[in-house]
Amino acid sequence: MSFVSLLMVIVPFSPPLGSSDGQGRILQRFPEKDWEDNPFPQGIELFCQPNGWQLYTERQPPAFFVAVLTDINSERHYCACFTFWEEVDNSQPQKSLSSEADEDDDSGILQPAQLFAPKSLVLVSRLDHTDVFRNCLGLIYTVHIDGLNVQLENLIGNLLTCVIPIAGGSQPDQDEKEESLRTITLGAGDRQVIQTPITDSLPVSGCSVAQLFRQLGIINVLYLFCAALTEHKILFLSSSYHRLTDACRALLAIMFPLKYSFTYVPILPGKLLEVLSTPTPFIIGVNSFFRSETQELLDVIIADLDGGTVTIPECVHISLLPDPLLHQTQTALSMVLDPELEIADHAFPQGSTQPSSPKIQDKEIRAVFLWLFAQLFQGYRWCLHIIRIHPEPVIRFHKAAFLGQRSLTEDDFLMKVLDGMAFAGFVSERGPPYRAIDLFDDLIANEVERIRLEEGNPHKMMNHVKELAEHLFKNENPYPAVAMHKVQRPSEGSHLQLHQMIFPHLDEVTVQLFIDHAAAKLRSAPPAVKVEKNCMVPSGPPLGAIVDRNGNVLANSARRLEVVRNCITYIFENKMLEAKKLLPAVLRALKGRAARQCLTQELNLHVQQNRAVLDDQQFDYVVRMMNCTLQDCSHMDEYGIAAALLPLVTAFCRKLGAGITQFAYSCVQEHTVWTNMQFWEAMFYSDVQNHIRALYIEVSEHELPSPDQGELVEEDKCALEIASEQRRLWPTLSKEKQQELIQKEESTVFSQAIHYANRMSYLLLPLDTSKNRLLRSSGLGDVESVSNSYVTNSIAGSMAESYDTESGFEDAETSDVANSVVRFINRFVDKVCNESGVTNEHLKALHTMIPDIVQMHIETLDAVHRESKRLPPIQKPKLLRPALLAGEELMMDGLRVYLIADGREEATGVLGGPPLLPAEGAIFLTTYRLIFKGTPSDPLVAEQVVTRSFPVASLTKEKKISISLQMDQFIQEGLQLRSCTFQLMKIAFDEEVASDLAEVFRKHIHKLRYPQHVRGTFAFTVGQSSKLVVEHKHKEKNQSLNSWQTNELFHGLKSGVLTMGRMNHSTTTLSKNLMKNAKKTIGRQYVTRKKYTPPTWENRGSIQSQVDEDEISVSEEVDQSSLTMSSTIKSSDRQTMSNVVERACCRDYQRLGLGTLSNSLTRSKNEPFRISTVNRMYTVCRSYPGLLIVPQSIPDSTIQRISRCYRQNRFPVVCWRNSRTKAVLLRSAGLHGKGVAGFFKSPNAPSAGPSQADSISLEQEKYLHAIISSMPSYSDTSGRNTLSGFTSAHMSSSGKWGSIRVSGRISSYNPDIGTRLAGKDSPQANGGPSETHFLRQQRAHLYIIGDKSQLKGAKQDSFQQWEVVPIEVFDVRQVKTSFKKLMKACVPSSSSLDSNMTFYRCLEESEWMCLLHKVLQVSVLVVELLDTGSSVMVSLEDGWDITTQVVSLVQLLSDPYYRTFDGFRLLVEKEWLSFGHRFSHRGAQTMTSQSSGFTPVFLQFLDCVHQIHLQFPMEFEFSQYYLKFLAYHYVSNRFRTFLLDSDYERIELGVMYEEKGERKNPQVYKSVWDNIDRLNKKTPIFFNYMFSPEDGEVLKPYSCISNLKVWEFYTEETLSEGPSYDWELIHGRPETTEEAERQDTSAPKSQRKIIWPCYDNKSKVEPDAITKLFQELQSLEVELGQVSEKWKDTWDKIKATQRTETKLEHRHTLSTSLLMSSNLSHHRRVNLQESGVGSSLNLTLDTESSSTSTPSGSMVGGRPSTSTLYSQFQTTESEHRSFEGILYKKGALLKPWKPRWFVLDKTKHQLRYYENRQDKDCKGVIDLAEVESVTPGTPTMGAPKAIDEKAFFDLKTTKRFYNFCAQDSHNAQLWIDSIQSCLSDA
User: Fold this and answer.
1) Which of 25, 1040, 1418, 1604 could form a disulfide with 1074 if both were Cys (CB 3.0 to 4.6 A apart)?
2) How far is residue 1309's CA from residue 1313's CA, in Å, rounded to a whole number?
3) pTM check: above 0.85
4) Which residues pair with 1114 in a beta bridge?
């Protein structure tokens, strides 16, 4: 082969000075005509001066580099460029220079005296021998510069005619001739040996790899390596061209055995920089001169060789090597490059370990990468499919099998490498089984086991690396000991000579003669043919033998595989019952790969002659197992499971009728693997390979003389081995034989293509082709697309256009399904047939055949589908009917669905126990609820019933989902329904539910969820036939009540609070306007009230009668200014009006002493407040109640004006007064913008005149002054209290913190709490805001808490009596967002894959706890202010959200009354209902409020109450369940209580007061309070047994987030019965099972019961001790036939008894008290546990003492005062009196007999005695443990007279002898027996 193909001399053509715009031009080229096989490389001039041709003022030293050009055939040409500088001949370029000079004269540039131009000698070769190129060009230059006596033409002629041997030379002991061939000389006394590599395929790298690692470092080069393999763009920057070429060469060398097939330009000229914008990958080198122009490249990895950096853009993600390999490679490279690192820390290092020489180091690094590729690609040859052997081998790689067997399916790097172009080239180059082999083939074949052993041992690995490096070095340098090189070099400094010769023009003729002479000599010489050392390529150990890296080859136990085998055996032996038992275990086992493979093998055994006919049951089971197996297969089918099942699905079948057979494939189509083109290709190639192999085994059998041996030999051979043998024999075969083999192979491929067209149509055409059920799959739309969701019955139909077939079949119904399947199969056939060399005629025949195949299959399927419909349906579980409430009706019959597990893991069996979900059953839609009722799919728990339900009104989100589950049938679609009662239903409709029915179901839900009007809600429609909800028209915005509504309004006098005269019957039809009614009825009158006696709140029943008597009389004192409508009213026409005002407000005002209204004539003017009727017709403020508490001195007209300053006209009104300090709590909305301006206007500011705004502002001040003056502290002579004046007074005020760590709390307490509300945070024990600098030095009488954002810029007037405290509050949008996140945290829709997103992290991100903390924080501080005597006005937002929360909590904390049943009801009715919290709007209860979304402000309040309840469990009469009940029903719409937004709306709708006689159904309660009252009489479920309040107790809970707990309401679930808040449904049923258990006493029953937290109702199956006693008591009463007593009566009796006994026996002794104090205790703890059988439980639960018993003994508590703070428990003896009475006792020596009151205490095992029965101080104790005997005694001296002798008895203890005397012998015997029984019990 010619060494050099071309040599040129290139000079610049007209280059301007210092500019790079010049061009090069070729002076001479040799040879002048191109060689036949070497076209002239275009554009070579650009590459000689990549920075541009330019002139220099100084002579530069000669330069040399090699550029690489790639021609159109991907052949690389190496252009060695030798450049030197010559002085420009002044005459030659004078024209251009002078012309330039003329132009540039003006700019003042002087032309230099001497210029130097570059001249390049370029040598082009196909071979890469850099050093030889440098030497040859250098020699030519040396001869020229030093003027040696050698003709340049001779040198060039010799160079061009050098012929070097082909690669693959012999070993070093070659003969002289070969050596002389490898030695070249140019005829100038030079001599060079060309080192031709032994193996041509191994790259030559010199030192370039080692240099690249030195320049960039290990990590950077590994990044570049991975980037190049995964096809990224790589750009090298350096100021040296030679280094750019070396770096690119090095990167390619370490990629071996892969070859880079994209753009490769080691040196890119500046003029071609736009190439960098190409979209394809590249490896390019650019001079650093152009660095600035590379900065804008966004997707290019830039490696700066000079700076040693690699810059990876943000948008580029480089997949790195899989982890263990990456680490091992880094370690190995480190040991090669820096061997001293390992021993750097050794105290006595063993000698110096220097790194190898660069050339050796270079090969060692390459050896590491070779070792790496051997690991990556080990076993690759076992995944090659040979699909043609002749005429040329055609080989395909089975990527999925390779990844599956290597367990690397998830590895991103390897996936990209296998998909890349380089690997495709690798397969086509190294795939053929018969070829020359190199070092890599040897490594893969023979060293796999060695490599595996070296993985954990770096030193063994290094030994291997050194061996490989030696091979590589020998390959590159095969002749180390040849004769010395001899090359002339120019003399030192010759290039700096002043006058140098110009490089002469060479004589072309002389050179051409040389070339022609050499060519003639070559033609006469014999051709040099490289000896092909072809052989069979060894495959290495099979992949199965390679243990994958993680070591978990098979994770399945043998037992599981045994179960699979047994089940299949039972199925085919028709033992269906046995099979049914094992089936669930089999389906679970099939999650494992080994079990899936086992299944395919076992099923194969039952196929005879490609067919296995089954009965229906067998068929059903086999199909289920197949589906389960395929379900866990990925679309790639990396483990070959789908491939193994493919022949089976066409084998198993069942007979449906005469001549009609259904095959298994029609039931297993729902898997993405069938839509993956790559799967079908791999299957096709695999089958073709098997048939080709069989073809040649048959051929060899016929030809071999001894067939027996032949069989043995050939049968064991794999396809590649046979192919290798055939390729070896191919040249020896005759042309006819060759042609015959080609035809046989081609027809084999063709027949397989037809077979696969059939197979694909089987699996792609749905059973019901007329019904395009699942054409939503994208599987067939795009060959490469892979869908991850299983679809139901067809994978066809995703393409819109139809296929134009030539077939005669045409069916309009099925054309779209058929066409898409035809298109898919056609694409497949085109691809595989083109690759495997099928002739065009055969291909056309296939295209004609495919539509016919598909159409015939469709016709077959139609018959199968018809018959399959006639099959009896599979037995499905019976649908269970849910129990319904009275008045609740079904809207739709139950739809069969599956309830799917969501993100909560309790029911799925993940946390232990069998999975309750998924469950099969039905979903029912009623007028009130959505109910799922069914049974778990898992047969182990199939007898359980699963119920999940929630009110329709609580639905917050509904969305369609597609669900795939392993069930008996396929599922079409699903719904996800989320409720704000913290419930989620993921349901999947059964196939029997038509999709239109599912749509009807959704529409019904929406209609029920968002009725047109509130009258459409369940609370109003209950009991009516509600199949159709009446739609009300929208009313005008400001309308008032119409006549019908007003009739409703004035309906019931019985339940009225206020009666105003008598109603005239003639005016029943009232006018339309409520205001007119008001004018006619009340006119402008003051309302006065008779003396009211507050009822005792103990007895709820007595309230009604007393309230009924309460009347308001009307006086004629009217204020004319309040007249809004003129009309004259006769007093005789006055009508009475009832129920205008809500009862709760009035009752509470009177209780607080705010609303005492006497007759108008005698009304006391001393009372600071009055009840105003200014809003009686809701004209001032729609959302306020009718009666309001305002200061006595403020007339109604002022109120009307003031109200305009506040949002929604919600002006400040009093809602509570502290009974001790007389401070009041006011509520209002925030001020309007103008109101704020007026409010803070300085009184001294100049003003043009008294405007209306000024007057309103003054009236506001007057209003606030009136409130302040009502406070007793204001009227003190001392004026305002100073700080010191009240600190000591109020530090000891009664208050209870949620912990016993009181001291720490008080120390941080600052009396000026108002300033603390303005709040910068500081560490407070309570989590309250800290104090900032003081705004004032004295405490204000009134603190106004307002929104910081509103009060910006407001200045505080130091002379005012009030202080404005700006605080930051959250708005309702935050609540809404927070609640959504809270729901997703507590009830996630699916299990989170992100390990960071735990429950607590999601809870934190929801910020729900932060919102609770803020509300509690503000509330606690308001409580402090009120408790210290300052009044507070809460004036936030519109006054109906956060304001309501704060004022409600303040009252709850401050006033113990609100912590009772009646009080809490009153609080909610007053603050939430009467004062107009927008329940309908915030709850999105109707169509109009749907867009506003659900905002749970009231739920937030209940959560705050729950937090307080947790910290103070003894202060609340109601239990936690009571709060959950309200939380559930305030959104359920079962009751009317929480509907509508204000009293005005309730009166307008006629629902403010219900008549008692109106209730048609006794079970239907319209008010939640009535329902609670009724339930409370039946059951103690709402009652808190720990209730033991202290008088006037003020609670101050901790509000820090760390002190708050997640409410159980959010997380608990009871799958056994659904939510327990519809109490009648769960507890109203007779519990037959429990009765049956009680009766069946014949067999011994276990007392153990398993409780599932998510299934059982814990409070029901494991009740607390007291509830258990109540239940036992009730069952005993039933047993004895007694009338059952109400639980409350029983409880009150126990309390009364205990109270009297406690009073008799109470005393305080430290000796017997049990002190329970703990620093972690937040309350008085009362441990209520279930006591053991036979033990008694006595209770004292009054304000003086509290006690309880536990199984281990007794813990009795008495609390003398608040100061104990829940931490001290005083023992009383009242509960331990087993036997008591009077006994005479003989005193000690010389002491008389005395009567004493003796008490026998079995619990404490004592006999105590007292002076008398009333005495509390124990006189003495006899410990029964010390008693030795009790015997009848005899009277002793001084004994009582006239008493029977048998009444005496003696007691002997270890210490002394006691003489006792009872009243008579009977009593004495009782005492003896009692003491004896105590002793025996012990």
Assistant:
1) 1040
2) 8
3) no
4) 1087
